[in-house]
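Why do we bother with a discrete structure alphabet at all? Because it lets us treat a fold like text: something you can write down, compare, and reason about line by line. To make this less abstract, here is a complete entry for ABC transporter substrate-binding protein. Read it the way you would read a sentence in a foreign language you are learning: slowly, and without expecting to understand everything at once.
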Amino acid sequence: STAADTSSTGAAKAPGDIVVGFAQVGAESGWRTANTKDIQDAFAASGMQLKFSDAQQKQENQIKAIRSYITQGVDVIAFSPVVETGWDAVLKEAKDAGIPVVLTDRAVDSKDDSLYVSFLGSDFIKEGEKAGQWVVDEYKNQTDPVKIIQLEGTTGAAPAIDRAEGFADVIKADPKFQIVASQTGDFTRAGGKQVTEALLKSNPDATLIFAHNDDMGLGAIEAVEAAGKVPGKDIKIVTIDAVKDGMQALSDGKINFIVECSPLLGKQLVDIVKKVVAGESVEKRILTEETTFTQEQATAAFPTRQY
Ligand code: AHR
């Protein structure tokens, strides 16, 4: 039953009677694993029932999962859309069934914002801008071209689109910055390694890699080393996420800079769900707070990192 039912009866639902369906993207990265764990832990602590599905980075699987949550009549559906477009039909089905939808981590590209109640997650454009700003500062005394390889996230995903946009917007201030190659590594370590191997061959004069997440950057490190170059020195690497393995590589000097993207969305999602079920209004856009890390800062922060 929905928020409307609750307010009409005036009786608040007990947490144990609230059922939430969460359609996750997949298990493509360290970030995603941390995000899944945080969401499952937060719901377990809340006493609400969580139904969880993993779409293995396929939109069709996510749509199937959402449809099944609609059929089961869950109270709230939350999901992290693998790509931005193509959601209107299934979201309309949820709306017609009176089931509120919360977007978690990633946005949809839809003209109709009545199809979801709230979007909780990072500002991916800002993350790309922060990565770009580090690059601009790092090379401020260099006049020669800086040839950049970009490892893109999943094609069509909000973080891939927005991070590329934010980064490009900042580096365009100086034409010495040239993105000489840009390809998707699908946010995975294997993808980052494979794409870097190929792109280093076709662009042997590249000196900087911007990877849309830590995992692809970690894969790139392996490819750079296999090419006989030193990651962090011959080829500088900038990434986004700040998961444990990324922070370790940053602290070891193999990555040069990381922009944080927090996967710890569980508690906030639980709060949103509680409010929605109680018929209270929620903010349409809820941003996560994030910072950045240099190599020194990574060494200092490492012991207390949660993910
Ligand atoms: O949507 C967030 C992104 O998805 C993370 O940066 C990446 O690691 C994950 O796969």
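What the structure line is telling us, in plain words: The first helix runs from residue 3 to 9. Confidence is low (pLDDT under 50) at residues 1-8.
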